User: Fold these one by one.
Assistant:
Number 1:
Amino acid sequence: MRASLVILFVLIVWLPLGLNVAGRDGGDPEGENRELVAFTGTNIGAWFNDHFGLRSTFVRWYGEAQLFVFGVSPSASVIKGRNGWFFYADDSAVEDYVSEHPLTPEALANWRHALVRAERWLRARNIAYLFLIAPDKHVLYPDEMPSTVVRIGEKSRTDQFYGNLWDTKVLVDVRPALVAARARERIYQKTDTHWNDRGAFVAYQTIVNAARAEVPSIPAPWTRDEFDAVSLDVAGKDLTGMMGLKRVLREQDLRLVPRRPRLARVVQPSGGQPDDEVGRLVTEIPGSTLPRTVIFRDSFASQLAPFLSEHFSRAVYLWQNDFDAEVVEREHPDLVIQEIVGRHLHNFIPSPELVPDP
């Protein structure tokens, strides 16, 4: 009996390495929603941790046990909500939800300085400017958050931002339109940090209407009647990958399929798609004389891009929070849009000095 246990123990310990030797890679970058360590010849330990035989199976078993047996999220980066909803816990998302630490007067003053300086510099060049905060999922679906995460403050940093800086006249608030849309249908993904097509569409309409007030030659936003609403059963998205359960959990992806062809084409990177998450993405409408735009953005603009790009002859999307005057001078846009997700008000400090003196 003892010998059998010893043999079994040795087999279990050596099985992962044996599978690697046999040519089986235990890593699953798709299932974990991240890039695994690549072998360089000098990082055997780090590579083996990501690729040992049966790794993806063990990760999945652990995740299933935590979620389905103990009823908790298997990842500290993900909060298990109610009714199949999951929420992002990193990147100051929890701090944003509980609203314990409001923006200081100094922080608000710095934001005002940054917005006013950018607006004045752009206006001197006949360029319009819009700034918006993309709401995190917990802003629209606080009722799906677990009762164990309790809000402390009455006002979020986004509330403060809009309340104190609205007179800068560059702000666009997409929250009222999203709240109204939520009453009609689900507008955020259950297993992702972001809005779905239908939420992004509502935000897009609000942005374009605000842009047209500044640049009337921008076409009116598409209407909902120009899309077919479809629902697709898909594998879980980014939050399920963080839990190692992307191949286990699924959800209904509520999409909007245009009834007429989209004209904008990605010219950089070559072969890209409008919703690709890359540092620099450029779309153009061949032969168009529509206005041009530069958009400083984060991941929430990825689903906005297919909609927004139809309104500009050239749209340059840059994955960064800070304003970049050099890019603006090089691109000669008619409009600059700056988008930032609400939780980044906790960890991003704008740099007004990056904008040249108006």
Number 2:
Amino acid sequence: MDIVIPLNISVTKTMLVEPAVTAKYIGSGDMEVLATPMMIALMEAASLDAVKSHLPDGWTTVGTKVEVDHIRATPEGDVVKAEAVLVKQEGRLCTFSVHAHDSKGAVGQGHHQRVIVDRKKFVQKLRQS
């Protein structure tokens, strides 16, 4: 099945930096600042949401690659916004430019790739392994 998604579609997702998303809480560090894995998760969620309305029923995307720089810490109480923009599609492979910022400016940037998959086939392959 050929699925073509318009380039440059984008979505922005927002997250309040509360204790449950800090590096100290999730164990990726010992500071009460936004954890890098949580920033990346927000970027991935924005990427998923950017394309999901363009997929047929029963199809989704799964993340396959993340190349992100976390360039500045965000303290508890601040809000982070992550934007994903579809910049390239090659068959089922979608590449996104991702950026995150808080009230003081940029906190992260990079690229994320997702692959378009048929949910049923994907789950069947998992069960066969």
